[in-house]
């Protein structure tokens, strides 16, 4: 007998009662039928929406304070973006922050929701929102400009608080 | 006049039957969902009640694809056989006693055939032609395997099925289905007189209708879609419909043979007018059939599929001997009493 010889396992034969199958069938039916009256886990989606926790990374947005974006157009986010989805063009302004983005575009077809832009931003100007519903009907529509990206800071309070806690 | 009454009966029964079949598909999906703690289709119409309509619309508007090397004629014929057989079995099933309508005594059964049981056995066996021919004519290995399995399954279950019916025939002494129902008046239902025969018959009905513990002809994990792999559009819809129609027919046959058909105990002495009694009896019949349909559905979502050799073992080594034992016992008891 070699060392690798498979060990023969002797299994007990089924008893007559087990061979009838019927008790098992009724046991199974008892289980499935009792499930009939248990609560359902389905969320009726378009009516009943999910409110994600603050740790959720939805689509990236630009934080807007009193109508003005916080972004100073440093370009770090564009630099760090692994999917090359962000394009920033900066210019000078009279405001105290001195610089602002003339053009800020995120190609949502390329974005991978990694959150690096948010992590690298020195001004807390780009954060991940809770929005997870993204639909567009053409590739051009997938490029979000400043008009779609700006979002008031009050709406993003959850996420900003979360970021400060975990800094 | 006789022909007119018969035509009206056929029309009404066909309408009720097709509507019921459509809603059984919905019931199946809702029950399956509930068993799995889901909701199921609930969008089309109130609580999804128009879902069957949407399904039909979808199937009708789909393209009908026939494989290049398929036998076109038989490929078209097979679903027609399936649905035709499933629906025409209902012709001999009595769904109520006779009722007096506008001065005519109308028997609530389309055709009271002398050899009703033989008619049912013959037609349900023909049903397998639909499956086998569709498997052969598609010229696809999966379809062919499904078709072959179906015919092998039929041979191994038809015997047990026939033998278990003979027990009922011996007790009631007739092959006519309405007489068999009349013999089960009160609580003399055949399920109490023939418990073993009832179990055997129900199990063979599952095999006959290709429902889940025995749905080897379509076995999705192994055979893609089984015999209807190469079907699409309305022709697939016919197969789908015929599966549920044959389930309904099988439930009706089980009800007629074993659950007392339209007999509702205590109703004869309840003192209602004869018309009301007839209506209540039809409702009782529908209730019993719905219970059996629900049982079919619940079993589907409870049991796993049998392996092919297990199926053969069960058919030949367990059910056939049991059916013969049942037959002998029934014969002895009938002889002594």
Using brief descriptors, characterize the structure shown.
heterodimer; A: 167 residues; alpha+beta; four-stranded mixed sheet; 6 helices; elongated; B: 337 residues; mainly alpha; two-stranded antiparallel ribbon; 12 helices; 2% strand; globular
Q: Which whole number gives the mean pLDDT of chain B?
A: 85
Task: Describe the sheet with the most strands of chain A.
Answer: 4 strands, mixed
User: What is the CA–CA distance across the termini of chain A?
Assistant: 64 Å
User: Strand fraction band of chain B?
Assistant: under 5%
Task: Compute the number of helices of chain B.
Answer: 12
Oligomer: heterodimer
* Unreliable residue stretches of chain B: none
The chain-level mean pLDDT of chain A equals 87
How many beta-strand segments of chain B?
A: 2
Any idea what the radius of gyration of chain B is? 21 Å
Molecular structure report:
The complex is a heterodimer of chains A (167) and B (337). Chain A is elongated and about 90 Å long. In chain A, strands 1, 2, 5 and 7 form a four-stranded mixed beta sheet that branches. In chain A, strands 3-4-6 form a three-stranded antiparallel beta sheet. The mean pLDDT of chain A is 87. In chain A, strand 3 and strand 4 (99-107) form a beta hairpin. With 167 residues, chain A is an alpha+beta fold. Chain A has helices spanning 16-19, 22-35, 76-80, 116-120, 146-149, 157-165, and strands at 60-65, 68-69, 86-92, 99-107, 126-128, 143-144, 150-152. Chain B has 337 residues and is mainly α. Helices cover 67% and strands 2% of the residues of chain B. Chain B is built from twelve helices and two strands; from the N terminus they run αααββααααααααα. A two-stranded antiparallel ribbon of chain B has the order 1-2. The model of chain B has no long low-confidence stretch (mean pLDDT 85).
């Amino acid at each position: 007998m070699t060392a690798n010889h498979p060990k023969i396992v002797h299994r007990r034969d089924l008893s007559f009662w087990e061979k009838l199958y019927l008790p098992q069938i009724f046991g199974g039916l008892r289980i499935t039928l009792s499930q009939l009256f248990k609560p359902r886990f389905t969320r009726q989606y378009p009516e009943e929406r999910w409110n994600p926790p603050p740790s959720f990374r939805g689509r990236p947005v630009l934080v807007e304070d009193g109508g003005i974006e916080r972004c100073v157009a440093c370009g770090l986010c564009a630099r760090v973006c692994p999917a090359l989805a962000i394009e920033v063009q900066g210019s000078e302004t009279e405001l105290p922050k001195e610089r602002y983005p003339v053009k800020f575009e995120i190609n949502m077809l390329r974005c991978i929701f990694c959150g690096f832009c948010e992590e690298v931003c020195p001004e807390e100007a780009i954060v991940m929102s809770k929005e997870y519903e993204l639909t567009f009907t053409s590739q051009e529509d997938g490029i979000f400009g400043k008009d779609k990206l700006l979002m008031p800071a009050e709406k993003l309070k959850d996420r900003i608080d979360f970021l400060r806690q975990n800094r | 006049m006789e022909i007119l009454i018969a035509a009206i009966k056929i029309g009404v029964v066909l309408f009720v039957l097709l509507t019921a079949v459509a809603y059984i598909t919905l019931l199946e999906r809702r029950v399956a969902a509930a068993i799995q703690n889901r909701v199921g289709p609930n969008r089309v119409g109130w609580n999804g009640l128009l879902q069957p309509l949407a399904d039909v619309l979808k199937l009708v508007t789909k393209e009908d694809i026939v494989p290049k090397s398929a036998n076109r004629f038989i490929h078209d014929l097979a679903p027609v056989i399936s649905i035709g057989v499933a629906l025409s079995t209902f012709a001999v099933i009595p769904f109520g006693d006779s009722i007096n309508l506008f001065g005519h005594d109308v028997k609530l059964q389309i055709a009271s055939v002398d050899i009703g049981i033989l008619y049912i056995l013959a037609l349900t066996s023909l049903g397998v032609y639909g499956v086998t021919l569709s498997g052969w004519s598609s010229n696809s290995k999966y379809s062919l395997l499904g078709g072959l399995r179906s015919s092998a399954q039929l041979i191994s279950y038809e015997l047990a099925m026939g033998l278990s019916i003979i027990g009922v025939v011996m007790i009631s002494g007739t092959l006519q289905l309405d007489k068999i129902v009349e013999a089960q008046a009160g609580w003399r239902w055949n399920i109490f007189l023939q418990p073993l025969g009832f179990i055997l018959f129900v199990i063979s009905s599952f095999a006959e209708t290709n429902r889940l513990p025995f749905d080897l002809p379509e076995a999705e994990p192994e055979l893609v879609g089984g015999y209807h792999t190469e079907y699409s559009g309305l022709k697939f819809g016919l197969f789908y419909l015929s599966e549920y129609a044959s389930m309904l027919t099988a439930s009706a046959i089980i009800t007629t043979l074993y659950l007392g058909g339209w007999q509702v105990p205590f109703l004869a002495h309840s003192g209602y007018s004869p018309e009301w009694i007839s209506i209540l009896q039809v409702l009782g019949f529908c209730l019993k059939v719905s219970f059996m349909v629900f049982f079919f559905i619940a079993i589907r979502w409870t049991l796993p599929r049998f392996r092919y050799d297990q199926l053969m073992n069960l058919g030949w080594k367990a059910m056939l001997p049991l059916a013969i034992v049942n037959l002998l016992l029934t014969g002895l008891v009938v002889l002594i009493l």
